């Protein structure tokens, strides 16, 4: 089956749902319908973004025999129910992270996906920058020696002010954690992916710098400011604006991560460094086509993204010639290309080249350990 013979439906018409639609178009997949919080809002958003037919609700989309794949890009609290409904309807499923709000939910979804035989994926798209795949290949080949330390940051500023608001702030909609679950989860998955190691213990400190925020009475899109004339009400906040954590990996490698959504000037800034016994690797998302390679006994190097100089898995993601920057939208193209290769075959491969529900479960297990560690103020094991 060719990609052009596959039709996807998208649940959610916010920032990330539109990003899914754009990436699907780039790989030749037809977007056959969208669902939002209400038919009226969905029609307005669909017209604005050039999206197709609006289904009245999720049930109508799942009953449509023309929809082969469902992309869940809705608020976090409905992910688990919507994913389960899509699997029960016989659809392949791509879910935004988090897969669920608890490991109890994600365990059920992993089992249901396995029983269904459907392709299942979680949109941990940061892995799909080509140089992140290159970093993984170099670590796996032993080019830097055994990893000793994995450090980094994921910083944003879109929640810097007390007037900044989004549904993620509400624990009922976004879950117990905010900065850690929203962006820290991407970094934690990336650290495990590039190193080939798993986080086994965490020591975390969560920070709520704005314990009171001003909530607008209207809705606010992700990364968008509330309207100047919106009425606001004071709300007490318990979710994390930022977090600091120490990490232990299964082979003894150590790690440290800082996550923040209140770092002025940082729009979507990811940095990761792997220090090995011989050399180091460092990558920065705001300069995504270059990776720094550090040495002691010779000059440091900078590797530019160019397919001719990359390991095969990374080269496959480098679609444009060197010097033509590939960025955030391209990560979705790379991820969905891998997912839809399996969908075209009708079932998951034995070793999927994309993050599956099992990976989504793993990330939730780590973030649960972060929450428990911050509460108990001690090292906390990850329960998988």
Structure, explained:
This protein is α/β, with parallel strands linked by helices and 384 residues long. It is built from 11 helices and 16 strands. A 9-stranded mixed beta sheet has the order 15-14-13-12-6-11-10-7-16. α5 runs antiparallel to α11 and α8 packs across α11. The chain is globular and about 65 Å long. 49% of the residues are buried. The model has no long low-confidence stretch (mean pLDDT 94).
Keywords:
single chain, 384 residues, alpha/beta, 9-stranded mixed β-sheet, 5-stranded parallel β-sheet, 34% helix, 23% strand, globular
Write the layout of secondary structure elements.
Elements (H helix, E strand, L loop, with lengths): L6 E5 L3 H12 L3 E6 L3 H11 L8 H6 L5 E4 L6 H10 L3 E4 L7 H14 L3 E3 L7 H11 L6 E9 L15 H4 L4 H17 L3 E9 L4 E5 L15 E5 L5 E8 L4 E7 L8 E8 L3 E5 L5 E5 L6 E4 L7 H6 L10 H18 L11 H20 L3 E2 L3
Parallel strand pairs: 1-2, 1-3, 3-4, 4-5, 6-11
Antiparallel strand pairs: 6-12, 7-10, 7-16, 8-9, 10-11, 12-13, 13-14, 14-15
Helix pairs in contact: 1-10, 4-5, 5-11, 6-8, 8-11
Low-confidence stretches: none
Portion of residues in beta strands equals 15-25%
Coarse shape: globular
Class from helix and strand fractions: alpha/beta
Helix content: 25-40%
Mean of all residue-level pLDDT scores: 94
Span between N and C termini? 36 Å
Q: Spell the H/E element sequence.
A: EHEHHEHEHEHEHHEEEEEEEEEHHHE
Question: For the largest beta sheet, what order do the strands appear in spatially?
Answer: 15-14-13-12-6-11-10-7-16
Radius of gyration: 21 Å
Number of strands: 16
Please summarize the sheet with the most strands.
Answer: 9 strands, mixed
Total count of helical runs of at least 4 residues: 11
